[in-house]
Amino acid sequence: MMKKVSINNMNGQGITLSAVLNFPEGFDRSEQYPAIVVSHPGGGVKEQTAGTYAKKLAEQGFVTVAFDASYQGESTGEPRQLENPHVRTEDVSAVIDYLTTLTYVDNSRIGAMGICAGAGYTANAAINDRRIKSVGTVSMVNIGQMFRNGWDNNIPDAEAIPFIQAGSDSRTSDAAGNDIATIPMAPLNEEDAPNEELRQAWEYYHTKRAEYCTAPGFATARSLNQIISYDAFHKAEAFLTQPLLTVVGSNAGSKWMSDDLMQRAASTDKAMHVVQGANHMDLYDGEAEITEAISVLDPFFKRTL
After folding, report:
1. For residue 150, what are the contacts with CB-CB under 8 A and spacing of at least 6?
2. Smaller CB count within 10 Å for the chain: N or C?
3. What is the pTM of this model?
């Protein structure tokens, strides 16, 4: 069972978040359930991989919610397709605010997970919000690291300064009333992909594999001002003390970011599950890969919530 809901002005931005609640089989409104917030990748929407994980975790007995980030999908906010990491982190807490108003959610058993950049935002939210009792990640990306250091972590921070300049120039252009410049969140064309893994990212977002009408696959160029200097794991060594499970493919080019969080997180209850043979995108929609991911996320959340 599922229910579409609107979450009004809980992130302090005057934005209405569009979300889908998923309920376990035999749901009884008079009972209380553990709940899990599921955050989508950068460039994605709730109808794609986040919705898949939310639905499958609900089948395991959790109330789950997948939502569209501020400025994206069916959520409100201008300019459209702004990717502000600080707001996206706050969105996670805003959804938790909403969950705490539901009588059938046990406020002491709320967890959070995300996929790709949504996983990084989830980790950052857990650093800031003690209501998150445990954290799961899938194919995690720390969006700031990826944009400034590259998919393969081979670019020095200082070389990203031109991107900060580009974001600054875009803000000036936007203020002048010009057409809003954009940047790709994944390759917009197959020929733009530098490797097979990112070719699959193009395929996921721009072909029948998983394309969705509210997910155009780009962000506003002004987003670079917030993205480049952002660290989703800032102060994780002090404040990310909740139980942590990272799920990552053995062949994922993004694996180094999950490795980084595993090293930095203060949690004494932390583990990584490696899906052998999987790349970053396989964990978005690969049937066998998702089944394996759920097989470890389910007992993890049941133990920690």
Report:
1. none
2. N
3. 0.97
**In whole numbers, what is the pLDDT of the chain averaged over residues?**
97
CB atoms within 10 A of CB 178: 10
Q: Where are the beta strands (DSSP E) in 139-276?
A: 182-184, 218-220, 244-249, 270-275
Residue 157 CA to residue 233 CA, distance in Å, equals: 16
pLDDT for 155-182, tens place per residue? 999 999 999 999 999 999 999 999 999 9
How far apart are alpha carbons 252 and 289 in whole angstroms? Answer: 13
**Beta-sheet strand order (sheet of 244-249):** 2-8, 16-22, 63-67, 33-39, 105-115, 135-138, 244-249, 270-275
Is the Cα torsion angle 73, 114, 148, 15 positive or negative in sign?
Answer: positive
Which tokens hold the place of 183?
Answer: 């940047």
Q: Which residue has the tokens 């070389």?
A: 159
CB 97 within 8 A of CB 206: no
> What is the structure's pLDDT at 149?
97
Cα separations (Å) of 46 from 39, 65, 132?
A: 8, 9, 20
With contact defined as beta carbons under 8 Å apart, do 85 and 144 qualify? yes
Q: What is the DSSP string of 89-146?
A: HHHHHHHHHHHTT-TTEEEEEEEEEEETHHHHHHHHHHHH-TT---EEEES---HHHH
